[in-house]
Amino acid sequence: MAEAIEAPYSGLSSQRNHLYATSSVVVPNAVVATNDSSIVSKRSVEKFYVSDRADHLLRHFVPKFQRRSPLINRGYWLRMELVKQTVEEFLSSNTDVPKHLINLGCGFDPLPFHYLRRYPGIDFIDVDYPQSIRRKAEIIRNTPELNELLVDPSYSPDSDAVIISSANYTAVGIDLSDLRKFDGILQARCQANDELLFISEVAITYMPVEDADSLIKWAAQFPGAKFALIEQILPAGEKHPFAKTMLSHFRKIKSALQNIGKYPSLTAQVQRFDAYGWSSVVACDFYGAWCNMISSEQKSFVESIEPFDEWEDFVSFGQHYFFLYASSRMPDAKQMSLFTREWTCGSRVTTEDIAKPDLKNLQSSRISTLTAGLEYRKHWQPGFDRRKLGAAAKLCDGVAIYYGGMDAKARSAVTYIFDEAKMKVSRVDTSPQPAPRVCHTLTKVGSRKVLLVGGRGNPKSALADCWLFDGVVWTRVQDLPNGRYRHSATHIFIESEDCVLVFGGRGNGNEVYDTWVLWSESNGWSEVKSVGRSPISRFSASLSWFPSMAAGVLTGGFSREGHIISDVLLVSLNGPGSIKQQRWRPPPGFGSNLLGRAGAQLHPIGDTEALLLGGVLGSHCLPADFPGNVLHLNISNQEIEPLCTILSGKEQDMWPVLMGCDCVWLNNRLHILGGGITAFSMGSFWNLCTGILEIDQLRPAEIISRRIKPQLASSENISLPDVYSAIGTPKPSLVERYILAQNTTEIQSAIRRRVPLLFDNLSFGECTKVWSPEYLKAAFGESREVWYTMHIPRIHIM
Ligand SMILES: C[S@@+](CC[C@H](N)C(=O)[O-])C[C@H]1O[C@@H](n2cnc3c(N)ncnc32)[C@H](O)[C@@H]1O
User: This protein's superkingdom (predicted)?
Assistant: First the structure.
C-alpha cells in the first residue's frame, strides 16, 4: 500500500495466547467447528432455494446433506441474501479503482467462487484460522470445478499465512487477532485508495472483544473501506427467553459469543463503529431486513418453497440478529438507501440516531400508571408442560378448557380442564374427539359450551372441522366454508342467539383471508360482508367483542408477507350479514406505538376495557418486565396505557414467554396457559411448568411504585434508548396554559401530577424584546446548538 497504515495498536494480542484467556467457554477448535454447522445449514438453503444448480458450490464442502427445518432455512436464506445483496452492489458499482473483497472468518463459505468468473478484476481474500483454511484449500484443490476458476494458483498448506495464492484469490490462514500479520498481507495487495469490502458473517463475535474492536478500528483506516457485519444482539436483555436459549447454546458448545455483552444492541454496535472511525453506519435487525430489504417477489418465492408457519419464532430470531453496514468515508449508495428508505417493521439505527440525546432519562415519565402482579406457578400436571399453540376458553365459573397445541415432538389431541378453585389441571379422555391440531380457536358459547374452530395439522392442511364441547363430550358441528388457522374468533349475541364471529386466518396454498364468517348452532356458517373496505387480510390478529358497546376490536396480526400490522379497528354489525369497521386512531405516544403485534391475546376485563398481552411486536423485542408487554385498552375513550407487570414469588428470573400461549379470564384473573418459542437452531424455550400465570386485579401504580424500580433496573443491560427509538420517540403533547393566580387549585394539582404548565402573560424582562434571531446569532455564533435539560424528576424539557 502506498500510504502507510497506522501501525496496529499496542494492545494487539499476537503475542498473547487469548484462546483460553478470555472465557472458560471459548475453545478455538470449537469456534472453528461453528463453521461445520453453519455450512450444513447454508447447503440446505442452496439445495432448496437456489434454482440454478451451477450455483450449488456448497455441495463440494458438505458431503453429507442434511435438510434443515423451514425456520432455519428461512433464517439462513435471509442471512445469505443480505450478504449477496451487499457483495453484488459492491462488485457492480461503477468505479475504476481496484476492489478487494475480504471475508473475515469465512469458514467454508465459497462466496468468491460465485463471482470469480463474472468479475475478473476483483481481488478476493478469504481469512480464517489456519486449520480451517487448510481444510478448505484441500477441497478447492481437489475440486476441478473450483480450482479451474483460480488464475495460476499456488497451494502452500504448510505456510503460516497465505495457503492459496493466485492472481484473483487468496486464502489466508491466520488468527484474526494477529493484526500485525494481517496488516502485512493486505498492505502487499492494496493501494491507498482501493475499495475494500470487509465481511464478517457471524465470525468476529467469537473473538475477544478488544481484538475485534482493534480489527474494526484498523479496517476503518483504509480510506475506501466498507464493513458488513452480521451477528447476534440482545434487544431485550439476556433474560429474554430467546436470548437465554441462545447464550446457553453457545456456552454449551464452548464458543461463547464474546462481543455481545459489550455490544448488546443496535445502538451499541453503531456507536462502536462510530467510535472506531467509521464515518457513516447503519444497522437493522433481521426482522427489519426481512420487511424492508427483501422484495415482495422474493418473499413470495421463499414462501413457495416449503410450508412454513413458524412466524413468532422467525420474528424473535430476526430481532436477535442484525446487519450492519459502515463506510470509512462518505455514505455510499447502499447506505443512502438504507438511511432514507421508509422503514416499516423492525428496528433500524443510524449514525444520525446516536447523535440524538439520551432518552434514558425519559423512562420514569413514561411508565404506566397501572400495575399487575404476575404469579408463576410450577408443575401443574405432568404432560401439560411444554405446550404451545393450543387454545383455551372459559367453560363455566372458575373452570376453563385447554385443547390441542404441540409439545416438542407432536401435535396433541388432548383435552385438559383447569379448575381455578383447586388450581388443578386434569386430563379428560373423550371419544370422539377432534384430530390433533394447533392454531385453532376455542370460544365460549352459551352457559357451558365451547366452540372449536379450524386450526391446522401441518401448515399445508388447514382444517375446516368445528366441534362443540359441553364439559363432557365433543360433538362435531358444521364445517367452516374453508379450512382456516391463525384466525381470530369472538363470541357475539345476535337476536339472543350465541354466535361466533371469525376473521382472517390462513388457508391452504398460502391463502390469507380478509373475510368474516359467522357461526350459530341453528344456522351453521354464513359469510358476513364488509361494508366499505375490508380490513387488510391478516393472520394471528386479536379480536374481542364488547356487548355493552355493541362493538368489537380487531387489532394487529401478520400480513401475507409477514409484516406486523399496527392498526386498531372498531367493528360493529351493520344489520344482519354485514359488518362495518372504523379505524381507531389512538393518540400518538408510547402506548400506541406498542400496539402493532401479532399472536397477542386481547381479553375484555370489563364492559369497555381489555388487556392486550404478549405476542411479537413489530417495532421491537420488549424485555418481559418492560411496561408495555401488557397494554390496558379503554375502548370507550380510546385510551391505551402500558401496564407494569411485576413477577411475584421467588422465580425472579423465570419470565415466561408470552408467545404461543392462550389466556382465560376467570374471577378477575388472567390465566396464561402454555407458551414457548423455538430459538432458531439453538434450542427451544417453554413456559416450563406450563402452569398458570396469573395477573391480579389492576392496582394503581402508586401503591407499589417502589417495587417497580428494581424490576426496571434489572433490564439495564438493554438499551432503553434503543427501545424508544424503535417504538418512536416521545410525541409532543399539549401543555396546559394558565394565567397565574387564577387557577391555584389546578396549579397545585398539576404540581402533584408533575406535568409541565405554560403561564401566559408573565414578564420575562428585556429578553423577550432583545433576543431576536439576529441578536442570538451575533451573541452565540451561527452554528451553536443549545440544549437545556431540567433535572427535576419526571419533568424533562428538550
Ligand atoms: C459461525 S462460522 C461462520 C463462517 C462463515 N462466515 C459463514 O457464515 O458461513 C465462524 C467462523 O469464524 C472463524 N473465526 C472466529 N474467530 C476467528 C479468528 N480469531 N480468526 C480467524 N477466524 C476466526 C471460525 O473459525 C469460523 O470459521
Answer: Eukaryota
